Amino acid sequence: MRATRATARRAHRLNPRLALAAALASISTDAWAHAQVGRASGFLTGFLHPVSGLDHVLAMISVGVWGAQLGAPAMWVLPVAFPMVMALGGTMGLLGIPLPGTELGVALSATVLGAMVLAEARPPLWVAAAVVGVFAVFHGHAHGTELPAGEDGLLYSAGFVVATGCLHGVGIAIGLVHRWASGRLALRVAGAIVALAGLFFVWRLFR
Amino acid sequence: MRRMARFLPAAALLSLAARAEAHFITTGLGPVYDGIAHLVMSPADVALVVALTLLAGMRGARAGRTILAVLPVSWLAGGLAGLELPAAEGPAGATGACFFLVGALVAADRNLSLGVVAALAAAVGALEGYLAGSSLLATPSGGLELLGGLAALLVIVTLVAGAVVSLKVFWARIAVRVLGSWIAATGLLMLGWTLRNAR
Predict the structure, then answer these.
(1) Residue B113: CB partners within 8 Å, gap ≥ 6?
(2) Is this prediction's ipTM beyond 0.90?
């Protein structure tokens, strides 16, 4: 008798997956076209744009690492200032305002920022912000000129800015090893590698 | 049976395809929910509301409470005006400029007075509400959709303001400032984008 009851309970037990599927299917409506297109692609395309260029990646990470070496307040002033100055350059690029030597500026940014990390340079905060800001304009201009037409302006821009900010975050996270002697050495070696990569980018421009 | 169990949710999700239109979202659950979805699925609206709330939240509990009253009321007033007045697109680049202004203020973390924060929230809220109302002109139940949008806005403002006001640790405040700089940078790029397209 008990076995029969258990069998009956099992037979009446609702399959949760089936119930969920049925519930979801029951709220379907008719599908029309033309809306909300380009949203994911806009953000993702913008997000992937800065990550796709090694020169940009190295420079952004170096900004974070240098900020971590300098400590507070530079550690957060540089990542707060950089996106806005970069966007200024991006706006110039979007509007077609020429900036001489953009590619050279981008290539040199890796060299100079790598050298700063290598030397553990400690200039006054305004000098560090100015160095980073000048290169931010070049990076922004290069990207602003390349921005594809037809993308969702807001989401593309947001993806672009968030990716740049994340690269800074990666740099700061790497730079936190600065508290250990071996970490400081490793950061200086990394700075030397970035500076050499920057020289390679410069050489490639004049090749 | 296991294959079937995997297939069924996928089929159900495919059947969820909702009616999609150019400027508003149809959930199939009625105009109030459509209004909620419209606001929540509009990144520009959400980001601006979040930015304004971050700005107020950083100025303390009093400013947080003020924006909780000012922003929804101004947004509703603007929305009702948008529903009544002839459709308008609003000044080109207005959203981008608002993004830049509010984001830069969050990034700068200046000690703004309560009146300035409230005035800014009222102006931006009215403008964004007006644009939202105008976009609902073509819908049969624009008023109810506006009400849904208002409910969503109220929830966002409450949650964000509460979260920011309660931030005590130093790095959390820095994170909010970084977020503000991202919003400002996005606004500046949007402005450039708008100006390029206007040419």
Answers:
(1) none
(2) no
